[in-house]
Amino acid sequence: MYKKRSFWLTVFSLVLFFLFIQYAQTHFDAYIIRIMNVAAIYVILGVSLNLINGFTGQFSLGHAGFMAIGAYTSALLYMSPELKAMNFFIKPLIWPLNEIQIPFLSALLAGGLLAACAGFLVGAPCMRVKGDYLAIVTYGFSEIIRVLFNNLQSITNGPLGLKGLPTYTNLWWSWGWAVFTVFFIKRLIDSSYGRALKAIRDNEEAAEAMGVNLFYHKTLAFVVGAFFAGIAGGLLGSLVMTIDPNAFNIMLTFQIVLIVLLGGLGSITGTVISGVMIAFLMEWLRIVETPMKIFGITIPGISGMRMLIFSLILMVAVLFFRHGILGDREFSWEALFSAFKKRHSTEGE
Amino acid sequence: MTWTLLLQHLANGVALGFVFGLVAIGYTLVYGVVKLVNFAHGDIFMMASFFVYYGIVLFSFPWWFSFVCAIFLTALLGISIEKVAYKPLRDAPRISSLCSAIGMSFLLENFATVVFGGRQKPFYQPQILSKTLDIGGVRIQLVTVVTILVSVAALLFLNYLVYRTRMGLAMRALAHDFDTARLMGINVDRTITFTFAVGSSLAAISAIFWALRYPQIWPFMGVFPGWRAFTAAIIGGIGSIKGAMTGGFLIGMISIMLVAFLPDLAGYRDAFIFMMLVLVLLFKPTGLFGEA
Amino acid sequence: MAILKLDGVTKRFGGLIAVNNVSLELEEGELSGLIGPNGAGKTTIFNVITGVYPVDSGKILFMNQDITRKRPHETAALGIARTFQNIKLFGKMSVLDNVRVACHYRLRASVFSAVFSLPNYVKQDEELTRESLRLLEAVGLYKLKNDRASSLPYGHQRKLEIARALATKPKILLLDEPAAGMNPEETSELMKFIRRIRDEFNLTILLIEHDMKVVMGICERITVLDHGCVIARGSPGEIQSNPEVIKAYLGSGAYARS
Predict the structure, then answer these.
(1) Structural domain of residue A298, as residue ranges?
(2) Is residue A3 part of a domain?
């Protein structure tokens, strides 16, 4: 009975949520819409990284690389041939990429799938490489993607990047994918497969002794995580309209790590909250980089200040809030009701 | 390709190898003792070059005095980073200290961007060091020779510290078995402080030689040397000083020779180094000189 | 018929020979013990059987099948389950989930049917949940099924580890010091418990134990290991009077005095 009630409550709140999205898309300020889009992308990135880092316990720093693959693959597929010709004026794009154009959704999926393949390649060495070494290998991987994309001019246009991408990403696309990501990963970790992943996190040796195939499950986490990171990359490309290899650097990965840490390793609810928070925070922090007038004195904006404050927050989070907002707790309707009931009964006394 | 040219490249490769090797030793020492990848090590390297820069520009110190000051300041910086960011997390799960190290690296880079500015700055080139020696047709910069000589001296001194002093003995004991060594009454805090001081000063020395060779300094200059040096430390077998030097040489040589002989592929240099890293980790996870 | 057979198994770590040319047979349904001084290589033998360490030489046969090169998850799936000397539970997971993980390898449904709750997954998941609950009932942990594994008291953790091992549907159960850290009362309860599960689940059990009361009390056959070699093999009575064994345990001086 509880299950059924929770199900309908979830459906009901999703309907409400998408009504809100529809309203926001048509009535909100373009600036706010943009931040909301970024928030959704952060949610996708945070939740997918949490699957690898928080639920499977494999410390990965490769998310920016997966995003880059997703962003470039999808952009090269949904851009029109004319736009590609305009972009690739130094070295032409290779055939057949220069002639094809496919719809946004299939381009996104293609980007996600290619990122998932990369996820498999990165996840496979997981068997031999653990802990800090894995962090280094995945970090190296994402830097290598950057190096490759800077050099493969006839595919990626090198450091010039791709400009003037069509803006398909709107709130429906971004939040639609965000909701799907949360749904997919939540269902995955609650399933028997998810229990195997958490077992690997808690004690790898015991998990293997209980029949859990480490290779299969670790790569599973990487493949699924990378897929959604690729999707997020595709959405981001079409949102900001310009991508270049150096945008997908380690800083971007650090931001996602911060989202996961703040939300709590192993809490999807926490990651969603912190993803939205960070998106808005990063926008508000832009204030410190613009000149300000306080009591008639003009304080010039300091470039880089935003990232400095951001890294201070990261350090404070690591040193003093090690468990994030929610630790590894999750939201559930049952918990909400029982909390509500408890308060009700204490009020009654 | 003539012999003289080859020898020139070889000398450059050796010098660069020493630079990477010294940074790699910093990673290896810290990892050996506290089992932590000090992600901020590359940024400590960057800070050292800025210390030199400001010593000369702001305080008009003579260049050699500025170098010495920078080495001391960098050692201090390394010690403070350990106190602030790593010590509180010593008994926390590994993932926390790893995050802290990443955060520290991030913080130093952004701090440098805000305080020193994001633009590249020219690094002071002492007149004497930019001379070129001509040994039988082989033209070698004096910097290259000095790099090699100073690095060898630093290595000998390090060898003395690690194998001939009580502090070195404590370091080796902690690296071998942290908990037992702690129980045996080794002053853990002091030894770790010392380890960070040694690692950071070696990073400072190599930063100076790096900046003399590539005289542009900026807040993100430590990222790639740091990453290559760390790779060197893993390839050589982390925890082993000999391994770190060997790895450093390997990577220094590859860097120089790739640019010299296959300039078309030079852009992929880091991709090659990464492939090497993955292969070593897959087939000999403990590195060339690591213990099982 | 021997269900498990080790044939001249050797395992070296660097210069140290942890297991030296060990041959061992377990009869189906027998409850036997593996004893020896610290560092004799007992746990290493468990790790070699389950495939944690590859052997340097020798052969391991399980029900006439060569399992020498198998990985731990493969030996587990074939029917060799184990517990650990220093309990290794999935600390952050619930008691029930700890047991359900051990059923996971039998799941025959794809990730997709798991995520989208397709009927074939739901049916199997319900089945393995039922099985796990039955096991928890059998070891007396049913009421604690939703507790965090790390929050259980020590004795319960040991039992949960055994329940988890049973969930892999083993034919052989390897117990590594099951009585470690227990008081005499708990120990005698554990002895009954081990006998009971052996009969109830038709198991062949091999256990490592330092508590001689346990070993002599329940084991039908005992193997003594010293410095990686088998030095004696026989019934509890034979082992107790074997001079080699006394020497290994007490040193040659003690033997001379007695």
Answers:
(1) 28-348
(2) no
**Residues B233 and B225: beta-carbon distance below 8 Å:** no
Quickly list DSSP for chain B: --HHHHHHHHHHHHHHHHHHHHHHHHHHHHHHHH----TTHHHHHHHHHHHHHHHHHTT---HHHHHHHHHHHHHHHHHHHIIIIIGGGTTS-HHHHHHHHHHHHHHHHHHHHHHH-SS-EEPP--TGGG-EEEETTEEEEHHHHHHHHHHHHHHHHHHHHHHHSHHHHHHHHHHH-HHHHHHTT--HHHHHHHHHHHHHHHHHHHHHHHHHHS-EE-TTTTHHHHHHHHHHHHHH-TT-HHHHHHHHHHHHHHHHHHHHH-GGGGGGHHHHHHHHHHHHHHH-TT-SS---
CATH number, residue A51: 1.10.3470
Backbone angles phi, psi at A298, to 5 degrees: -90, 125
DSSP designation for A92: P
- Identify all chain A residues contacting B264, using CB atoms and an 8 Å cutoff: none
Contacts of C101 in chain A (CB under 8 A): 195-196, 199, 207, 210, 212
B115-162 pLDDT per residue, tens: 888 888 898 888 887 788 887 777 888 888 889 999 999 999 999 998
Q: Which helix (H) or strand (E) holds A104?
A: helix A104-123
Give yes or no for a contact between C93 and C40, defined as CB atoms under 8 angstroms apart: no
Is there a domain that residue A23 lies in?
no
Instruction: Classify residue A280 as left (phi > 0), alpha (psi -120 to 50) or beta.
Output: alpha
CA A250 to chain centre: 14
Spacing of C-alpha B245 from chain mean position = 10
Residue A20 placed within a domain: no
Q: How do the domains of chain B map onto residue ranges?
A: 3-267
* Mean pLDDT over the full length of chain A: 88
Neighbours of C77 (CB within 10 A): 18
Q: What is the pTM of this model?
A: 0.89
Nearest residue in C to A184, CA atom = C115
Q: What DSSP character marks residue C105?
A: G
CB-based contact (8 Å) between B95 and chain A?
yes
Number of structural domains chain A divides into: 1
d(CA A54, CA B20): 34
The complex scores an ipTM of 0.91
Rounded CA gap, A297 and A291, in Å?
Answer: 10
Residues of B numbered 113-132 whose beta carbons fall under 8 angstroms of chain A's beta carbons: which are they? 113-114, 118
What are the residues of chain C with a beta carbon less than 8 Å away from any beta carbon of chain A?
50, 52, 71-73, 76-77, 81-82, 84, 88-93, 97-98, 100-105, 107, 111, 114-117, 121, 124-125, 128, 164-165, 167-168
Beta carbons of A193 and C104 less than 8 Å apart: yes
Region of A300 on the Ramachandran plot (φ > 0 left; ψ -120 to 50 alpha; else beta): beta
| Residue A161 to residue A82: CA distance in whole angstroms | 16
| Nearest CB partner across the interface for B104, out of A133, A144, A315 | A315
Interface of A with C (CB under 8 A): 184, 187-188, 191-193, 195-196, 198-199, 201-203, 205-214, 220, 224, 266, 328
State how far the Cα of B191 lies from the Cα of B184, in Å rounded to an integer. Answer: 14
**Hey, of A142, A306, A319, which one would you mutate to test binding to chain B, going by the most B CBs within 10 A of its CB?**
A319
Residue A7 lies in a domain: no
Q: What is the pLDDT of residues B209-250, one digit of tens each?
A: 999 988 899 998 998 889 889 889 988 888 888 899 999 999
153-192 in B: which are within 8 Å (CB) of A? none
Separation CA C136–CA C144 (nearest Å):
9
Contact A137, B100 (CB under 8 A): no
- Per-residue pLDDT of C75-99, as tens digits, reads 999 999 999 999 999 999 999 999 9
Architecture of domain B3-267: Orthogonal Bundle (1.10)
